[in-house]
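User: My advisor, Dr. K., asked me to get a structural model of this assembly before our group meeting. I'm new to this, so sorry if the format is off. These are the inputs:
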Amino acid sequence: MNTPILTTEKLKAFYILEVHSTQKVVKAVNEVDLQVQENEIYGIAGESGCGKSTLLKALAAVIEPPLRQLDGKVSYYVNGMATDVSSLSADEKRKLRWEYVSYVPQGSMSVLNPVIKIKDTYRDFITSHVKGKSREEAFKMAERQLAELGLPLQIMDAYPHQLSGGMRQRVTIALAALLEPRLIIADEPTTALDVVVQRGVVQMLKEIQGRLRNTIVLVTHDMGVHANIADRIGIMYAGKMVEEAPTEVIFNKPLHPYTQFLVNSLPKFGDKSPRDSVPGNPPSLANLPAGCPFHPRCPYAMAICKEKMPDYIPVESNHKVACWLIEEGRNGQVA
Amino acid sequence: MDKLLEVDQLTKVFSFGSITSRIRFTAVHNVSFFLKPAEIFTLAGESGCGKTTTAKMILGFEEPTSGIIRYNGKTKQRKEKVWFTEGVQAIFHFNTFNPLRTVDRYFFETIQNYKLAKNEDAAVALIEQKLQAVGLSYHEFAGKYPNEFSGGQLQRISIARALLTEPILLIADEPVSMVDASLRMSIVNLFKKLRDEFGMSVLYITHDLATAYYVSDRIAIMFRGNIVEMGNVEQVLMNPRHPYTQLLRDSIPQADPALRWAGKVNLNETEQEEYLKQGCRFAGRCPMAMDICRQHVPADILIENVLVKCHLYSGEEVPGEPVTVHSL
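Assistant: The format is fine. Below is the predicted structure of the whole assembly, which you can bring to the meeting.
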């Protein structure tokens, strides 16, 4: 369990925009330290606009202007060897993709080619990443995988618009898992799906992970999905990681006030007591408040919160928090 | 009868294809329900179950194939919309604001259309009052374009705009589906406040059963055009009788890692297959399907004030132990 597969060190990825010759910097990923282990499902949670998707872009090494990686590094561990992603050439990156790391993008509606059938999408995919497969072999491979994942075989002859959103999402995930990558990065795979279909998608991700014993990095804002699938969860707020712990700890003993809001705001069955949402609005990443970015919304904000960002420190071996309340030693007594 | 809105045997048939190979497709089939004053009624179901089509028919965007919609005891006729829209307002899941117009223009336009204020000062005062009801204020809103607000704020602004005519019924079509989980609560809390303080009724259309349970008084579960279970929200969601409701209820991700999903769901049929089914449309996925389910459409059965459309309960006056699908 303790072999890392993906690490980031002080990763900084900003969008740098020039509007009418004034520079605008959007600090989407700001000094993120992350270590993802082999054979685990790592969840990243946070509100929309907190930099989750940008972090994934950096992890998948698809950084394109205006997004720039200013500092820090992302390393993959290919066969036990650390490889700095930014040092790779485009060709080397291409070789790693889908065989070592694959990416399930947000919005399955728009990623499948609408004018070719699903089986041709599979063929395109197989012929460009695996050498020496004929058309028939590619179709066989696709059929075998669909059968394994319990998807109906009729969809091979369907066009994307003939399938429901949930089915398309599952086809996208199946494609990402086809070459048995060691690392799958999934961006909001269940958002905008309804509950039964969402359950089907989560079930499929778990099944793939169980079979390949690989790693899935899953981003979603739905804490219910995280509770169901993730082994460890990292909470992101305004471009920074604010808390990281095993799933049980995040839900039962959250330490950061923001995590407490996230967990406590969820409605539960059998309990109609009024629930509060997080007060205020998330800050703009182009204009962050000084100090801890959560302080304008935090009910426990102190003077120091407005001046300095707290360090991201471990409270236990597998539980890290960035909050002054913890540094001041009022460990866990904020709630 | 204190029925604010009554929908009786509403049916909508869509047909497509050419003249020679026409496919008729019943999107909404004999749907009946009513709303009482000061009540939040939820219409829930997965995507493609006909809940939005029902809302469109109530709002007059779509002509029903058959069935009657009564509002305050009056039947709605074509081309007389003003008396209706004054009392019934709608909000939608997508952002309905034009990105090139400032949002306050929508407010002034509504005020003009319904002649709600005599002059500009009165109009501003009215807008201020409605914005305060949703937790915003006029000065942080005037002259801004939609892209300057967050998704949750825009949703609250569209609710404020709907409140201008002082409606007694708000039809909310998936108001929280595009909003973050933490912002969802602020919107459903607003519905509660509108009901308790202004006596408004809300027809809340959603697929999110967790917020539906939290906010609503009564609920109807739709599946492929039919209402399969309807009744008090406590009874329907805490003790679901129809196998589909049980499946839905089980599929809600609980924010508790100790309560993970056990078992599997079967999603191997496409939507069209289910719509064109004979008999019960859920039979293909139902773990307790019997032969009769595949041939005959079940009747509506009333058990303890809950309407259930399922063969499992036919002939039952008083229910025994409810059958569960936890072994799914």
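One thing worth pointing out at the meeting: Chain B touches chain A through 49 residues (CB under 8 Å).

User: Perfect, thanks a lot.
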